[in-house]
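3.2 Worked example (two chains)
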Amino acid sequence: MIKSKFFRVWAFVLAFHFYPTLAQTQPSTAFNMNAAQPKKIEVSTIVSRDTTFDFPCRDSAISGLSINMKISIISSDYLVRILLEDINGENYLVAESYKELFDEENILFTDYCEETAILDNILPKKLHVYVKNANVTINSLLINSDSLYTSDKESFLDVIKTVRQNQVKEKIKRINTYNRTNNKLWYAGMTGLGMMSHSEKMRYMGIKENQTTNGFEFYIDGIYEIGEQKMNNRSQATSNYVSNFSWKNRHGKNWQTSVKNQGGSMYCAAFATNGVLESLANLYFNRMLDLDLSDQQVAACNKYQHPDVYHCGMHVDSVVLYVYENAVYDETAYPFYDGGTQACQCDIRTPNYTAQASGFHNITGGWDDIKSELIHNGPLVSGYVNGWNGHAMALVGYGTVVAGQHYSFCDNAGTYPYFHPSDTIQAGDPRVGQTYWIFKDSYYGEREYEYDGYMYLIFNNRSDMINTFALEWPITTWNVPNCSIICEDADGDGYYFWGVGPKPANCPSWVPNTPDGDDSDINYGAMDEYGNLAGLPFGQTIKTEVTFTDPYILINYGIVNNGVFRITESTAMIGGAKMRVCENGVMTIDGGSLNNPNIEMIPSSTLVIRNNGSINLTNGNSFEIPNGVTMQIENGSINISTN
């Protein structure tokens, strides 16, 4: 029995003892208990496999526990984790070590403790030691029995939080040092996940106690690599698809709704699926509806889930099925509850609006199939498996690792202490040419945290990405105002964008059947099946009022909604230059003249000629004013030369 082994092997001596802090053996004093008169238990035993011991002095409450030990590493993928269990079955992290924290061959821990630095006078029961590829020599335990708890519970919790923050900061420092030394492409930082208690974090991440996180809970930026590098698994090297594509920045817009926070729940699949449905509503209607859908409903009312879904999690396939079979309420009507599993309350809630997918399908092919779905159908429900349970997220795009690229994606990364401008991907790096995938997460901390909610992942194996699903349009909404599909030429190049889905019936008759591949750039037109854009003659989009005084117009201009192109001098269009005045755009000849015009006026546009301005056509020119164009000639003329 393990119990008898404890007392046979752990010959201990209990005594009051002043134990000096040996700073040179510690990464930081943040991990010292520093008790005034700790009780010292001599242990002197070596542990090389997972072991559980009964704790001595179980009848006495303790307010702190630290350990003196030495870890001898056998291989780099080692793990040491020590937990204290109390009589109520609660576990507290005493110490943990893995390569990202300590990669020395022999590591000495003196008066070392993490969550057990300050305890609420608990009654200890067991000590759990988890070991992989290492030998742990436990020399002694230090126990603080002084009562630290006061009647001011809030102040007591603040002290614990401060201690935890200092410990996490030290871990972040060590992980970033390891990453830079070992050519990792990601940054660690303060996150809400990293600040969770050890038990909460392990449950949330679906990790067993004998598994390491490799510091993933502290990810805030950069490219995190899942799985071992295998050259034949490069997901971009032989792809015909465009090297970068993201719905965070497409057609000049971010089509994603805000990053949500699933708190301590296991509702990642609900948050991921709703995130995709919200984004698809924006894309399908080609307008920023930015719906906020109820994650609580999708979790609590899904009949296919575990009865205790809050703690036990969800299956992605059943969640996408739910949003196909059911209209999802808005968040205001049915808010998220971060306090355990709740029964479904749809029958007592009244939605302000709803949204629903018209179907879904599983993407079972390879990397290129996923890219095709992303490009042509919008964000996907996906996620990762990292040796643990999976975590679902919204897959919103991808990119390609390029030599010379800085691997930070956060706008304010330069303010972080771990950021280095020289952190670029070097030529010859084996990851150059590989695809990284852009995910919208559902764990976004408070302002004190640094994670912006987006994650960039390399998968070295297809099996490390969870089953990926596409929601199908049309997206059906109820009681959402202004919910018709916008069909517009926002850059003035003659191509229109109407969102994902087929060309809608409300598009005007002059709109071409081929959609614009980038409706924010007049220099690009149609997009092929691989996401490549067709180049157009150089041009400029006019979105505000611009006064033109040059003698020649040499490039294309697209005058779009609220744009005004005002000519005040004599100018001529040459070299095949073209001007397109789109819906709600205005062309004004104000005292000047436009010679040799090549102008396309679109219905709902406006032409103004005033102050003796003129448009002068020569033989071969044509200038049509179709029905629906507003033309205002106020002391001006349109002239046709017969020479």
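3.2.1 Second chain
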Amino acid sequence: MKLLINQNAIFMGIRKLRLKFQYLLLLFSICLNTNAQIIGFCATSPNVPNNIATIRTRALLSSTTDSYIIKVFFHVMRKSDGTGGQTQQEVTTAFNTLVSDYQPYNIRFVLLGTDEIKSDNQYNQTNFFADANGNTDLNGDGKFDVFSPNSHVNAIDIYLYANDKLNFGLAANIPGSALVIGGNSFNTNLDSSHVLSHEIGHCLGLFHTFHGTDRVHEPNGCAEFVDGSNGTTCGDFVQDTPADPSRIFDCGTQNTCTWNCSTTYIDAHGDHYNPDTHLFMAYTFPNCMNHHTAGQVARIFTSIENSVILQNVLDYEISGPTLICDQANYFVDGLLNGATVTWSNGYSSPPYPMLFQDNPVANQCTIKNTWKYPLTMTLTATIKLNGNIIATLTKQIASCDNSTIQTGTYSQLSCSCYGKLKSTTNGVLNGNSVWVNQCCPVNVKLDNMVGRTISYVPIGGIYDISSSWYYNSTTSTLTFTLPYGSANIPYQFNITNSSGCPNKSILFFSSATDQKATLSISQSSGSNQTILSLTSNITSDSNEINDWDVEIYNTSLPTNVYKEKKVKERKHAINTSSWDNGIYIVNAYVNNEVLTGKFIINH
């Protein structure tokens, strides 16, 4: 009996030891699941189902667009007192790295915003897991179950930790809409490295290239064969990514990014592994990462089309010109499969520009400027998916006429210029040269400048204003000041566009102070003869003017087309019957003064 009791005691002791061992084993398993992959910089759980495969039981949607725009929001983790964490420059570098890495695949990112999360507890947080299997998003909303400060449904939340924290990146799910990243690994600050693009790859539906090879953390994993025979059903489920044994850190060289174990590791078929050491989704050195394969990009596009989580973080924009000459086509960039677009521009009858819905294809529109009516308008695109409005977009556009005359108004307040009070001037632009005062700022409000750019034609020398003129594109206002002593010098501004509409120009002059004479210009019918007339402004002596010199320039040519010295008569007739059509500038040199005028030839 005593022996039996001792045996039972021994049995119960062994059972307790076994339970303690199992408990320790469980703790060790949790430790492995939360830290094993951190050695390679990524802690994203491999125990996530292939979302594309689960969708195939329903109707799998294919992408109908060639680009997507994705919104991201950066959260900078800081201590409670506001210290620690990434600098603004590091945040900018992180965003620019992300943009650059995905730009070749027509995946664009827009920054929805940034904030600072000041909390000692969250600054020092290291555990983001919701269970012992390393899962972080058990409810499937794309965010972390145990960590989601200031999260956004309409953006991928990127939590940037300090360079001495975490030492890994972690996506909430595959696909998902949140990730954490921080620390330094392989002498690289992970936040602003290609590892950020690696974690975004998880958010967009991509698995590790070695997925299925880790029997400890993926007991039901399915490794991809080197021959690719199971490339779409095992591994990372992407056919064109080479099979990867997850040994690049053991067999790779960081400075050359080469695979040095071509004869060491073999798959279940006896074939030797030769992984791509440059893939973003491989466990490779951060400096070696530089591309996704075409198959991975296709998987991203398919994931977006079939994931509500990813559809919620999409942004859209209207693509098309801002200036319409004859007609222009508009479409929504990144439109989802099954979405519809309704267009409007606020006008529905001639002579206004006419909008044609679903032209030339469904969900696009064409605006025709048949009557060449100059107008600024707001183009609106209303996007619906499954009957619900998911976005309303606007774009400022303009239609143009066939005129080469730039219209607008100008104004100039009075000011003192070298002891002389200059009067206020104002007027309208109508194609003629504009005369303004020296020394006083000129403000020119230009009409119909949407889609157009303005430039100044330098004249060189001390009277050049290349560095002092300014154009405010928001208000379409040109501002400049003509310097003292610049009388009769032409100042030209060119207005151009890239839509085929006529280019335009404006000429400004300033007149001399206390002129002793006035130049007037008249023309015969047909512009065959042009007469230059001088009138003395000195009443006491009408013979004050002796002889004078004349130079005439065609504004489209660099040199003068006419020059006459010591003209005696007050009226000087010039035969212009053979001159080309155009605008001509006259400089008359009278008693150390320069008088300037303009005439137009139009035979």
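3.3 Remarks
Helices lie at 2-35, 51-55, 88-102, 120-123, 194-203, 248-251, 294-306, 308-311.
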